[in-house]
């Protein structure tokens, strides 16, 4: 990794190429340990979460049949919101990463799972697993950085268009699932020219998204309300609310994963001929965690352990907590910044960045980031 | 999540059913993207006809090494013919492993139950697991009955069954179902000792009642049964319609013997899965659909090896994180190039492997 850094203070300047490969080996060893222990416990865990989620969803939908009565509306909406969050985060996201493929249960498998989301699982897997996880935080490659519509880095040229990015980000949070669908379709890029618009693959994907959204909307906004009879409008409103709650929650969690202060971005050229150790290092520096209780981790689908998730995207998510202890020790050993903090702080930090970058850069360059510990002086940039 | 749908025989559909289907579709829309059965699974795992399961109703110990499981198949089950086998999917340490077991109970039990008899084989992960852990109330995954080791509709006047070890299980299913329709039956059964003979007591009782002629052979004392011995034990050998089940070498020897006598069509055999897969370095990878065969050395991923040979392969990240390169392995053995983990598949399996991080560790057959 040659250039990596846009930060004032290069967090890896003190590492040698050998250090980086050693980090890679240590991380591989952590992974092997989990793989060797993986089994019954993990299978039982995901089955239990699925069971809880389904029971909660069925129960909430049943309560919402009577959502004409305010207490039923509140209980049902809250329950449905939680069920939808669990479904997207701890179940869908993780199964679609292949974390539970080892079970060989065709019902809980990355190739067969479909989720309660506007975007079809397969398209999301492409843009998320294949692009985002491979090219984490590489500007111009990883579109998750700003979803292609935001300025996420001081070095990106400012344009008046970006003044509105706090607003875009807010709207994106409310309707996140549709934002993701548009993003998976690369809508912006694919609608640009006639040739791209008529590309058969794009058309096929577009159709699939249309079908998926149709079914999802029919369920939440027509069939389920209709079954509620006189509670039609109330049930509809409840479903809408649950979807928005889920969207805002997942948007916040995901924003905390790569946006907060202290997270590095990388240049396209920096990943040419990247070794496994360098790839690991990029994941370490390009992700941020959220600290909190066990419940908090479950509700974020363990994406609160974003760093661990990015290092080992295919390990069962419920293992990240135990892995985190070792990973953090490794960060300390090699004097690397392990970015973490409670949810409100991380969300605020991410939003502050969105707002700050909507404006042109302040001159002179901003103060050194307090999240990054001071570094030993280094004579030369690292070249691998 | 979409359930793999079993083809149904739709002929004439009555109106009530059409209505029911309509109502069902509404329910399906409510539960989208999963299907209603996925919710019902939470409550009643046996009622889902798209995912066949069975509940263990009773466990009987046969010998020190064998147990019989009485199973109640869930919805979607099709009754078996005596002599057929079923595949059981057992979750061992969180991983679903499938193995075939002959049905040893009589066909058409009024209770709807079937039983299989599991013999612990050496290093057998599933059989030893079942021997130790099978309990009443346990739910297993099940596949529809299969196999053509069955009696013809026109029952033969004279029949012979040659079995060794757990080879007796499908034969027991046949005898329990159809013994009364078979006028002249000889059973030649070999086991290591009299105590090791699964169903020994039942066979001896049938023989004592004059229903069949039992010839027991104890390999611990008398040595292995050779085809030549059979001529002595059963003088009218080639007049009999014969069914044989046991270890591969025995069946090979019998097949030779019968074809030398020009009676090959009178011999029916059932082979148990012979393979013990041992991990080596590299191997030939066969893409069954395209017919391509590639030599894949140890350090090369199956994805790279396949592509180099012009095979069209799905792929994405090429580093093991996107799961886009997953293909079903029908049989074979591969090694994870990152951590050395071995994955095997035997005939009948369809183990999904990531081709970008898997290297051949022996001959592999992919469904691609
Ligand atoms: S190509 Fe991505 S996991 Fe194999």
UniProtKB/TrEMBL annotation, chain A:
It holds the Pfam family FA_desaturase. It comes from the Bacteria. The keyword Oxidoreductase applies. GO terms for biological process: lipid biosynthetic process. Residues 73-340 form the Fatty acid desaturase domain. One of its GO terms (molecular function) is acyl-CoA 6-desaturase activity. Residues 362-384 are annotated as: Disordered. Keywords: Oxidoreductase. Residues 367-376 have a biased composition (Pro residues). The keyword Oxidoreductase applies. Coiled coil: none annotated. Its EC number is 1.14.19.3. One of its GO terms (cellular component) is membrane. This is Linoleoyl-CoA desaturase. It comes from Actinoplanes octamycinicus. The lineage of its organism: Bacteria, Bacillati, Actinomycetota, Actinomycetes, Micromonosporales.
């Amino acid at each position: 990794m040659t250039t990596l850094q846009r930060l004032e203070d290069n967090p890896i300047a003190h590492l040698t190429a050998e250090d980086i490969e050693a980090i890679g080996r240590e991380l591989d060893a952590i992974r092997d340990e989990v793989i060797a222990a993986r089994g019954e416990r993990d299978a039982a865990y995901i089955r239990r979460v699925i069971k809880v989620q389904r029971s909660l969803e069925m129960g909430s939908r049943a309560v919402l049949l009577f959502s004409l009565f305010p207490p039923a509306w509140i209980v049902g909406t809250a329950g449905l919101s939680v069920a939808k969050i669990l479904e997207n985060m701890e179940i869908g996201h993780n199964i679609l990463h292949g974390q539970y493929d080892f079970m060989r249960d065709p019902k809980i498998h990355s190739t067969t799972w479909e989720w309660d989301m506007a975007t079809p699982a397969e398209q999301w897997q492409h843009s998320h697993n294949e692009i985002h996880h491979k090219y984490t935080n590489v500007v111009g490659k990883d579109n998750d950085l700003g979803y292609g519509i935001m300025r996420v880095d001081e070095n990106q040229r400012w344009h008046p268009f970006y003044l509105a990015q706090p607003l875009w980000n807010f709207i994106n949070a409310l309707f996140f699932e549709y934002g993701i669908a548009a993003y998976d379709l690369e809508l912006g890029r694919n609608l640009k020219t006639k040739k791209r618009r008529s590309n058969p693959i794009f058309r096929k994907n577009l159709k699939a998204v249309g079908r998926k959204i149709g079914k999802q909307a029919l369920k939440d906004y027509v069939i389920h309300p209709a079954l509620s009879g006189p509670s039609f409008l109330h049930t509809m409103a409840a479903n809408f609310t649950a979807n928005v709650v889920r969207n805002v929650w997942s948007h916040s969690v995901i924003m905390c994963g790569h946006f907060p202060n202290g997270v590095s971005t990388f240049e396209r050229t920096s990943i040419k001929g990247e070794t496994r150790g360098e790839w690991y290092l990029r994941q370490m520096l390009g992700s941020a965690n959220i600290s909190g209780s066990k419940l908090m981790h479950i509700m974020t689908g363990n994406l609160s352990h974003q760093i661990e998730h990015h290092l080992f995207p295919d390990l069962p998510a419920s293992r990240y907590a135990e892995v985190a202890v070792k990973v953090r020790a490794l960060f300390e050993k090699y004097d690397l910044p392990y970015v973490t903090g409670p949810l409100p702080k991380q969300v605020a930090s991410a939003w502050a960045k969105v707002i700050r970058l909507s404006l042109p850069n302040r001159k002179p360059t901003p103060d050194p980031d307090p999240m990054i510990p001071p570094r030993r002086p280094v004579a030369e940039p690292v070249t691998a | 999540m979409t359930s793999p749908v079993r083809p149904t025989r739709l002929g004439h559909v009555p109106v009530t059913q059409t209505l029911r289907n309509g109502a069902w579709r509404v329910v399906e829309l409510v539960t989208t993207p999963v299907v209603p059965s996925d919710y019902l699974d939470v409550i009643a795992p046996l009622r889902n006809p798209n995912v066949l399961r069975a509940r263990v109703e009773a466990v009987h110990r046969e010998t020190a090494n064998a147990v019989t499981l009485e199973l109640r198949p869930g919805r979607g089950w099709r009754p078996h013919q005596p002599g057929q086998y079923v595949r059981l999917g057992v979750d061992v340490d969180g991983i679903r492993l499938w193995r075939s077991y002959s049905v040893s109970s009589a066909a058409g039990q009024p209770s709807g139950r079937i039983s299989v008899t599991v013999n612990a084989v050496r290093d057998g992960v599933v059989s030893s697991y079942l021997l130790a852990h099978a309990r009443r109330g346990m739910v297993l995954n099940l596949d529809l009955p299969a196999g053509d080791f069955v009696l013809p509709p026109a029952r033969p006047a004279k029949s012979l069954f040659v079995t060794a070890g757990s080879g007796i299980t499908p034969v027991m299913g046949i005898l329990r179902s159809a013994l009364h329709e078979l006028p002249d039956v000889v059973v030649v059964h070999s086991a290591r000792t009299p105590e090791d003979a699964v169903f020994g007591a039942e066979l001896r009782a049938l023989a004592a009642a004059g229903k069949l002629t039992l010839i027991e052979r104890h390999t611990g004392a008398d040595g292995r049964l050779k085809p030549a011995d059979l001529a002595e034990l059963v003088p009218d050998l080639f007049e009999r319609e014969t069914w044989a089940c046991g270890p591969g070498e025995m069946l090979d020897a019998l097949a030779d013997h019968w074809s030398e006598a020009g009676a090959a069509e009178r011999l029916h055999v059932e082979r148990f899965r012979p393979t013990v897969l041992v991990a080596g370095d590299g191997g030939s990878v066969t893409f069954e659909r395209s017919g391509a065969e590639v030599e894949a050395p140890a350090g090369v991923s199956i994805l790279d090896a396949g592509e180099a040979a012009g095979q069209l392969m799905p792929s994405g990240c090429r580093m093991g994180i996107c799961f886009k390169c997953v293909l079903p392995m029908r049989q074979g053995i591969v090694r994870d190039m990152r951590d050395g983990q071995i994955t095997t598949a035997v005939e009948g399996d369809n183990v999904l492997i990531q081709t970008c991080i898997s290297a051949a560790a022996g001959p592999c057959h992919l469904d691609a």
